[in-house]
Design brief:
- The protein is built from 21 helices and 12 strands.
- It has a 5-stranded parallel sheet, with helices on both faces.
- The longest helix is centred in the first third of the chain and has 31 residues.
């Protein structure tokens, strides 16, 4: 396959739904479409497809029926069903005998859809890697054992707290120090913050910085799975537990035995499920659906949410006892707009990754581009920044990126920022010298606040000596303000 993007086949008999899904996925995936099961099979026969995203209700062959055939003929394809109906026994059965990886409810949310398909693409990659390693193990034996150990060591280095991208004065430094300090303790951790801020990266740092790093790290997006399916997904199910359960299902908690499980979007779960999860945390055991007795598990639980769980507890939507079980330590991950000093590093990192995948080297960002990136608020956080860099790389002429390649919303934010600065200067009282001194005092004060009053770092950013900075602090009365 010539494309370096993961491939997804969208199967839906409604053209509008096809187009909506294509628009959402186009930047991150190579998208193929089909309007029926027959068209889908034809695409699968001629293209290398990694993910099949199929609507349940279609004329003739249903989505689950199609995915059963896909499982038989193309077992490596990761299968996802999408439907507006939650009570379909056909869907529940398909989770088992159809080998369906994930179930999405209509109306789907773009962020949730992208997160699910990125996870599916990663799962496909890991499956392929495992198959390759298994084959090599039969051939090479001890040699491969050394390779696997080396791969684990690489993961520990890649996801170590010290390896997370941030500037020397970033507020992320304190978070990474905390993660490194608590990684070896089997203490529940709750990660809070907006979507796309890097909560999963911190969870991986917790895992790979601990003694559990030799075992599995498993992720489940609790908000993407209905309650009827989430229990069997996490706790497992016995053969015959419900219609279509033709084989035992291990469950993610048992897959994470000895390792770590990340329960993402934990705030989206129902009260009924919260009771069952609380028992797992209290007893250290899970009861698979249809099983007569529980099974012991030893998995460290890390939870993540973009909700204010304390407010949810006060509103009665989240169990207080479960909250305290999950939040022995709470780590609030700041949004990207609150750490602008990290933006150049993260942007360059993603540009390097894009260049590596394309076999080309891009020149560094110029100051004009960086100023625009820093001025923008990034409501989508790191995920949105990555997509912006991908857009710029796609539009670039050769190896040089230009400010003209930025999206209109980022350019508008830069213009608004400049106008705000000019309005601030024009609104100050006094002659030009007085206004410039007032502006200088604001800049010095803001820089000191960002650097938590570290004079060495602030002086370096402002191009001053420590003595020069101290003189300005005294001159503008800022030492007393501290």
């Amino acid at each position: 396959m010539s494309s370096r993007l993961p491939t997804v086949l969208v199967v839906d008999d409604e053209v509008r739904s096809q187009e909506a899904l294509r628009r959402t996925l186009d930047e991150d995936f190579e998208v193929f479409t089909a309007s029926s099961a027959a068209e889908a099979v034809a695409v699968l026969e001629r293209e290398w497809i990694q993910i099949a995203l199929c609507d349940q209700r279609m004329p003739g062959t249903s989505g689950v029926q199609l995915l059963r055939e896909v499982r038989e003929r193309w077992p490596d394809v990761v299968r996802i069903i999408i439907s507006g109906y939650t009570d379909s026994e056909d869907i529940i059965a398909g989770i088992n005998d159809g080998g369906i990886y994930q179930y999405l409810m209509k109306p789907w949310q773009p962020d949730q859809l992208l997160l699910t398909l990125r996870s599916a693409a990663e799962m496909h990659r890991l499956q392929s890697e495992n198959q390759r390693l298994s084959l090599e193990l039969k051939v090479s034996g001890p040699v491969l054992t050394q390779r696997v150990s080396g791969k684990r060591a690489t993961l520990r280095r890649r996801f170590a707290p010290d390896a997370l991208l941030r500037a020397p004065d970033s507020p992320m430094n304190a978070l990474c120090d905390l993660v490194a300090r608590i990684a070896d303790f089997d203490i529940p951790v709750l990660l809070t913050g907006e979507s796309g801020t890097g909560k999963e990266l911190l969870a991986r740092a917790l895992h790979y910085g601990s003694a559990r790093a030799e075992h599995g790290f498993v992720v489940e997006n609790c908000g993407a799975v209905p309650d009827t399916l989430l229990e069997s997904e996490l706790f497992g199910a016995r053969r015959g537990a419900y219609t279509g359960a033709t084989e035992d299902r291990e469950g993610l908690f048992r897959q994470a035995d000895g390792g770590t499980i990340l329960l993402d979007e934990i705030g989206e779960t129902s009260a009924a499920f919260q009771v069952k999860l609380l028992r797992v945390l209290q007893e250290g055991e899970v009861r698979p659906v249809g099983a007569s007795r529980p099974v012991s598990v030893d998995a460290r639980v890390v939870a993540a949410t973009n909700r204010d769980l304390e407010a949810e507890v006060r509103a009665g939507r989240f169990r207080e006892d479960l909250y305290y079980r999950l939040a022995a330590i709470t780590i609030a991950v700041p949004p990207l707009r609150d750490r602008p000093m990290d933006i150049p590093l993260i942007a360059r990192h993603h540009l390097d990754l894009i260049g590596e995948s394309l076999g080309r080297a891009y020149r560094p960002f110029d100051e004009e581009i960086l100023s625009c990136l820093i001025a923008y608020r990034w409501p989508g956080n790191v995920r949105e920044l990555r997509n912006e860099i991908m857009r710029m790389a796609a539009l670039a002429d050769g190896d040089r990126l230009s400010v003209a390649h930025l999206s209109p919303r980022v350019l508008r934010a830069a213009d608004d920022h400049q106008e705000a600065e000019l309005s601030l200067l024009a609104g100050l009282d006094g002659d030009l010298k007085t206004r410039l001194e007032a502006l200088e005092a604001r800049i010095v004060n803001e820089t000191m606040l960002r650097h938590r009053w570290n004079k060495t770092h602030a002086a370096s950013e402002l191009g001053l000596s420590r003595v020069g900075l101290r003189n300005k602090l005294v001159r503008y009365g800022l030492e007393r303000r501290k």
